[in-house]
Amino acid sequence: MANKKPHINLVFIGHVDHGKSTTVGRLLYDSGNFDEQGLKKLKDKAAELGKSGFEFAFVMDNLKEERERGVTIDLAHKKFETDKYYFTVIDAPGHRDFIKNMITGAAQADAGVLVVAANDGVMAQTKEHVFLARTLGVGQLIVAVNKMDMKNYEEKVFNDIKGQVEGLLKKVGYKLEDITFIPISGLMGDNLIEKGKLDWFQGPSLLEAINNLKEPEKPVDLPLRLPIQDVYSITGIGVVPVGRVETGVMKLGEKIIAVPAREGKGVVGEVKSIEMHHEQLKEALPGDNIGFNVRGFGKNDIARGDVIGPVSNPPTVATEFTAQIVVLNHPTVVTIGYTPVFHIHTAQVACQIIEIQKKLNPATGETMAENPDFIKNGDAAIVKIKPVRPMVIERQKEIPHMARFAVRDSGQTVAAGMCMDLVAKDLSK
Predict the structure, then answer these.
(1) What's the whole-model pTM score?
(2) Based on the number of CB atoms within 10 Å of its own CB, is 262 exposed (0-12), middle (13-18) or buried (19 or more)?
(3) What integer pLDDT is reported at residue 101 of this predicted model?
(4) How many domains does the structure of the chain reveal?
(5) Is the CB of residue 267 less than 8 Å from the CB of residue 231?
(6) Helix (H) or strand (E) holding 239
(7) Taking the mean position of all CA atoms in its chain, how far away is CA 231?
(8) Is the separation of the CB atoms in 322 and 383 below 8 Å?
């Protein structure tokens, strides 16, 4: 376990039919992460469905319905290694109906590859995906201008599209110096690993660009935050909560508090043991999925959705909060009084929208209307929210990892967003 490569979640985003799945499939195949035999099976399958040339896309699109429609529906996860990193590649759907899955993908991504087709340029969903990636905290971005083969590999075409995308990225607040632009042909395999017909391009190949991503910083300097996923009772040991450390470090012997446990007052205890993959640890770091035993926690004291932090800096319990949200998939309109379920870390809490303060332009973030009566699909907004019971959420500028959420209603994700400000409950009362 000692030489484990750093792990990066990489999401591929972009407009429908811009070649994301084909690019990912080809990259996995050309880099030796997918075998010849597997590809041959997919080639035969593609021919049989009358979709010759789609075999690389099929590497990712493994649902039957997707193969028949030629559209990516669900998030496909594939593991992928370079000499430096270990990646989980998330191929997010570009299709309008499937944007909710794109959210779950982006919300767990450390970095993204935005695929823009050379023959189309920036489309409506290219804009939407860029804004979402920004709202959901995808910090590092690579822009791959795909389908260069359809434009005779012309450098001018690449530069024109690069200019279009730069304008878009600047609007939503990406720093252009942090962004790598590369021309590729996913279908032909040009500049995924070898330059091919793109030898005029001096920059990195797609594989090199991915390998040049920065390792996501482990937020060890932030206070400990560990949302509880499950609570087990183990004979001879006692109560064992299980969860993933989001920020900070959990140490043996540390005094911790779980909130909003027991009417929102919190329960205090001391960490007796920490275990991961059946190994005892002295401390747990961000990203570690651990089970731990706490002196002072009883079985009924804590539950899924409670968050653990140090007694000296307890997690923030909000009685109301202000958030920036994007409405993705609501059947009608969102008005004051709407009370869907908010999914924030491991908690699921019904929350009511008590104020719609501003409607924003989703491509630029600028204010379009103050106190509108409603917001609808595609709108971004600043809203004030009241949870039906106390819940833990943190401000984006303080602990971003604990500020993001998805809003669900009758089985679908209707919105996503992040907490900008909040009214904190006094735990001593």
Answers:
(1) 0.65
(2) middle
(3) 46
(4) 3
(5) no
(6) strand 238-244
(7) 25
(8) yes
